[in-house]
């Protein structure tokens, strides 16, 4: 199952496609909740094998879990829970996905980047940038407490506003541009800032073509999308849940099916 503030269909379609493809006796369903403690308790009580965790539950769920894998403990944010006979162990496959995408897109290590956001997913992204070797970064967050904390933990600068800075790499890790939200039609960065960037990265996956991604692509910018992130992290979740690693062809067809292709 999965828990999210605004559940989407990607995970449901991706996982169920591969369960059918590989003849595995699982079914995946997406939920939201107003009682996180009870929802997590239900995973244990009902013997649910695993749970994907999305905004806004990535940090809040930790209090109700038994063990943190190093991938989650280092970031203090969770996106995957695995139930091992009643013991709930937490992982973070977002970190893995972002690390792989930085490598695949050959993002230069001397790039100056700005990361907008300071929640659970922002931690995974910032830590992946740090561990990849990008040293010059700004955490852009209105919340000074979480913004400063994330910046200090990763060795970056915190700012409440971007000011005149025009970074090489722009990263949106907020709900701006997310379908169904109050800012669904908004750009996460001003047009002149996007125009000056070399790479644009938006972790929002619903829709994949956010206003930020559409604008950047229309202006010839290389983009990394939330669809890229969700496919890789979903694959790593699938392996944790089932112990089976699908072929590249199977993963590609599952991702296409999940996107409605």
Mean pLDDT: 95
What would CATH call the class of the largest domain?
Alpha Beta
According to DSSP, the number of beta strands is: 12
Written as H for each helix and E for each strand, in order along the chain, the element string is EHEHEEHEEHEHEHEEHEHEHH
- CATH topology annotation of the largest domain: Rossmann fold
Give the terminus-to-terminus CA distance: 23 Å
Q: Hey, roughly how much beta strand do the residues contain?
A: 15-25%
Largest sheet: 6 strands, mixed
* Total tally of structural domains: 2
Strand order of the largest sheet: 2-1-3-5-6-4
CATH architecture of the largest domain: 3-Layer(aba) Sandwich
What structural class results from the helix and strand content? alpha/beta
Helix amount, in percent? 40-55%
CATH superfamily of the largest domain: Leucine Dehydrogenase, chain A, domain 1
Q: How big is the Rg? A: 18 Å
Which spans have pLDDT < 50 for at least 5 consecutive residues?
none
- Total helices: the number is 10
Shape: globular
Structure commentary:
The chain is of the alpha/beta class and about 260 residues long. It folds into 2 domains: about 120 residues, Leucine Dehydrogenase, chain A, domain 1 (Rossmann fold, 3-Layer(aba) Sandwich); about 120 residues, 3-Layer(aba) Sandwich (Rossmann fold). It is about 40% helix and about 15% strand. The protein has 10 helices and 12 strands. The strands form 2 sheets. A 6-stranded mixed sheet has the order 2-1-3-5-6-4. Helix 1 crosses helix 10, helix 4 crosses helix 5 and helix 4 crosses helix 9. It is globular, with a radius of gyration of 18 Å.
């Amino acid at each position: 199952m999965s828990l999210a503030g605004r559940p989407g269909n990607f995970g449901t379609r991706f996982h169920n496609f591969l369960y059918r493809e590989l003849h595995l006796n699982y079914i995946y369903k997406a939920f939201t909740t107003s009682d996180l403690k009870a929802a997590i308790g239900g995973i244990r009580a009902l013997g649910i094998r695993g749970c994907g965790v999305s905004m806004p539950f990535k940090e809040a769920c930790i209090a109700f879990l038994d063990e943190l894998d190093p991938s989650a403990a280092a970031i203090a944010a969770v996106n995957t829970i695995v139930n091992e006979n009643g013991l709930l162990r937490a992982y973070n496959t977002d970190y893995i996905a972002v690390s792989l995408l930085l490598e695949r897109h050959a993002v230069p290590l001397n790039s100056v980047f700005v990361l907008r956001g300071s929640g659970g997913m922002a931690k995974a992204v910032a830590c992946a940038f740090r561990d990849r070797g990008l040293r010059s970064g700004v955490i852009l967050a209105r919340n000074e407490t979480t913004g400063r904390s994330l910046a200090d933990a990763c060795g970056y600068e915190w700012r409440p506003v971007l000011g005149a800075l025009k970074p090489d790499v722009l990263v949106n890790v907020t709900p701006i541009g997310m379908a169904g939200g109050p800012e669904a039609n908004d750009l996460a960065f001003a047009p002149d800032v996007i125009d000056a960037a070399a790479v644009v990265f938006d972790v929002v996956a619903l829709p994949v073509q956010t206003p930020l991604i559409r604008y950047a692509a229309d202006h010839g910018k290389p983009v990394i999308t939330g669809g890229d992130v969700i496919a890789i992290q979903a694959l790593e979740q699938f392996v944790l849940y089932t112990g089976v690693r699908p072929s590249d062809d199977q993963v590609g067809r599952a991702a296409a099916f999940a996107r409605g292709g």
